[in-house]
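Example record

One chain of 162 residues, shown exactly as stored in the release files.
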Amino acid sequence: MKTIAFDFDGVIHKYRDGWKDGSIYDEIDENMILIIRYLLKNNYNVFIMSTRDPDQIKQYLDRYLRIYEFNTEKRLFNVEVFPNSQKFWNKQGILGVCNHKAVFDVLLDDRAITYNGNSKDVIEQIINFKTYQKDLIDYSNFSKETFNSNQLRLPFKYQNCK
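Predicted structure tokens for this chain:
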């Protein structure tokens, strides 16, 4: 089965103001949480790879998951930190968290360029690269109810991951 790595800031943590003081200050992207759950339930190995302290990320996720469980009485998944000495994440059904580069098949990251074997355009891609955060929609006028888990907009064929 494939191993999927997620970056944290800008992918799971919305990270609209950049690093700031190193705190995890912004909202969680609930669609990413449902995507992670879908992957875990379908036997993918899934972990978060970040430069942040993995315990900080685990605490943030555990707090969110407790709130979700309280409101829905559903358990999404468990989160576990894995040590730097561990290069592979293969615990089925558990989201791993690390702050080192571990082995993966696919990486979801907001600050990456896909290298396709052709180095011709790489310099131009690097020089012109922009993150999606530059074009974010202003969500400040939306209420919290807008983003509750029953209204998340995943493609229809993935709706069973709720």
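Notes: The chain has one domain: 3-161.
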